[in-house]
Amino acid sequence: LLFPVSNLCGKCRPRDTDLLQPSLNFLYWSLHQTTPCSQQRAVAVLLSNVSLLELLQKVLECTWLQSPPSQPAYLSPDDALLCSGWLLVASLLLYQHRYNTEVHQTLSLDLTEVLNAVIFRKKKPILLLVSILQFLRAVLRQNFSSSLLVIVGQNTAQAATQPQASSLQDAALHPLAMGQVFSLVVSLQNLLVHVHLQKELLLSQAVVACLETLVEYLYGKNQDVALHVASQPWHRFLLFTLLNGGQKSFLQPEVLRLMTMFLRYRSTNIVSQKEISHILQQAAEANLAELPEATSRALHLFLCQV
User: Fold this and answer.
1) What's the mean pLDDT when you consider all of the chain?
2) Is pLDDT above 90 for 17?
3) ∠ Cα 229 234 235 (to 5°)
4) CA distance 306 to 300
5) Residue among 293, 300, 250, 288 at smallest CA distance from 272
6) What percent of the chain has pLDDT over 90?
7) Could you provide one GO biological process annotation from this protein's UniProt record (predicted)?
C-alpha cells in the first residue's frame, strides 16, 4: 500500500487537504506501527519518491504563508495537514539517520522561519505547535546534518555586522545564532507557563523535550554556552510557576524532567537541596504502581541523575 498511497500524494497539490491529510497520516503510521525490518523498507520506499518529497516541501512552506486562525485551539483542515506534514518529515529525518537510507530528493527549509513559527506563534493551534517542536527536536538531535534536509541558516550580511565575540559564538553554534537561542529559550519558557495554566499536557511534554534537546545540542557545540543557558535565573521563576499547584506538583513529569536537566548541567542556582528533598520524600510516600507512565519514567531519570 505504501507505493500507491505515496504515489497518490505526489500527484496532489497542498490544497488537496481532503485526500492528502489521511494519506500522510497513513504514511506516518506505516513508519511507526511496523516491525523494524519492514520499517527500514518503508523508509526506503518513501525517500525514493521524489514527487512525495517535493509535495512535503510545499506543505511545510504553507506554515508561514497562511494567516493565523481567529481561534488558536481550532484545528482547521489546513492546519491538520500541516501537522501531518511536520510529523511525517520529523519521522523521515529520524529513520533516514537510523538506517542511513539513500535520499533521492532533499528538502530545504529556512531555519529562521521554523524558529519564528515557535517564537512568534501567532495563535497557532496546539497540535501544530507540537508537530513543529517534534521536527525541531529531530533536527537538533542530528546537529542539523541530515542528508534529507538542507537548512538555510543565518543571513551572512547580517552576521557580518555583529560584534566579533558574538560572531565567534554563532560560528560555534552554527547554523543557530546566539540571539536565536535565547529567543527560542524564552519562548519555550513562556509557552510552558501558558500551557501549564491551560493544563495542556501534550504541548507541555513537547516543550520540555525540545528544551532538553536544545541544551544538549548546545553542550555538544559549546559547553560554556549550554551551562550559561541552563543557569538563566528566569528558569527559577519558571519552576516556581510550575510548582504553584501544591505539594503534588513536585511529581509532575515536566517538573521532574526540568529539574533533571538543571541537575545534569549543574544549575545549582535553579534547583535547591530543599526541592530535591521534597521530591525524594514524595517519591517515598507515593504508590509507585499507580503513577502514570510519564511520571514513572521522569522520576526514574531524576533519581538516576541525583
Assistant:
1) 89
2) yes
3) 70
4) 10
5) 250
6) 73
7) meiosis I
Give the span between the Cα atoms of 193 and 211, in whole angstroms: 13
User: 108 to each of 14, 60, 98, 178, how far by Cα in Å?
Assistant: 17, 10, 20, 22
Residues 23-75: tens digit of each pLDDT: 999 999 999 999 988 999 999 999 999 999 999 999 999 998 876 655 555 68
d(CA 30, CA 38): 9
For 173-204, give one letter per residue: b (16+ CB within 10 A) or e. beebbbebbebbbebbbebbbebbeeebeebb
CB contact at 8 A, 143 and 217: yes
E strands, 57-216, where?
107-110, 149-152
Within 10 A of 131 (CB to CB), how many other CB atoms are there? 25
C-alpha cell at 13: 497539490
The string of pLDDT tens digits covering residues 109-126 is 999 999 999 999 877 899
Enclosing H/E stretch for 254: helix 253-264
Identity of residue 5: V
The C-alpha R_g of the chain, in whole angstroms, comes to 20
Q: Which helix (H) or strand (E) holds 50?
A: helix 50-61
Phi/psi-derived region of residue 71, left when phi > 0, alpha when psi is between -120 and 50, beta in every other case: beta
Torsion from C-alpha of 16, 19, 24, 29, nearest 10 degrees: 160
- 270-300 b/e with 16+ CB inside 10 Å = b? bbeeebeebbeeebeeeeeeebeeebbebbe
164-203 residue pLDDT tens: 556 677 788 989 999 999 999 999 999 998 888 777 889 9
β-sheet bridge partners, residue 150: 108
Residue type, 60: L
- Residue 194 or residue 94, greater confidence: 94
